[in-house]
Design a protein that fits this description.
- The protein is mainly α.
- The longest helix is centred in the last third of the chain and has 32 residues.
- The radius of gyration is 17 Å and the shape is globular.
- It starts with a helix and ends with a helix.
- The mean pLDDT is about 85.
Length: about 180
């Protein structure tokens, strides 16, 4: 159960952070969509950008709370596949773009590491989908031991994500 909880919290916090960071820089995300796709209509771009941001935040929250997390995991897998296919397409064309991932994942130039990272997340989410159900956070509140496990696991996940984010920033600073 703890491993599934760890995966849910990791991916959930990643998607919460990416969705929230895109909320604060929605125009930059909207400007990136035509770079990655063939969409040029501003209304369609606005609709797509908002749909992705809402889906990222919603799925991230559901994963963190372990509520309907299997449905959220399927939606996250679909988004990771879409993003990975777009990045692989542009890597094949040797296009020089930034990923516009945001949040804990940063905003680095596209590289083969991004689809590989997404593949690892997809495999982890597939594991959570096939594993037995875990209690939702509201059920954990009743049992103090489970709540302690959830809190410690979430703190560990947040520390890992902060370390990953700052290592990306440090690498970007040392490249210059």
């Amino acid at each position: 159960m703890e491993f599934i909880l760890f995966i849910n919290l990791l991916v959930g916090n990643i998607f919460l952070s990416t969705g929230l960071s895109k909320c604060f820089s929605l125009t930059a995300f909207e400007e990136a969509i035509p770079q990655f796709t063939n969409f040029r209509n501003p209304k369609i771009i606005r609709m797509i950008s908002r749909a992705f941001v809402v889906t990222e935040i919603l799925c991230g929250g559901l994963l963190v709370c372990s509520f309907l997390y299997k449905v959220a995991a399927i939606l996250v897998i679909v988004m990771l596949i879409i993003f990975s296919m777009l990045i692989l397409h542009h890597l094949n064309k040797k296009t020089n773009l930034t990923c516009h991932c945001g949040g804990a994942l940063g905003n680095e130039e596209i590289n083969i590491g991004i689809p590989v990272r997404n593949l690892v997340l997809i495999i982890a989410l597939l594991f959570t989908i096939t594993a037995p159900e875990i209690p939702i956070i509201l059920q954990l509140l009743v049992e103090i031991e489970y709540l302690k496990t959830w809190l410690i696991t979430d703190l560990l996940v947040l520390c890992l994500l902060a370390t990953y984010y700052f290592s990306l920033k440090l690498n970007a600073l040392t490249k210059v």
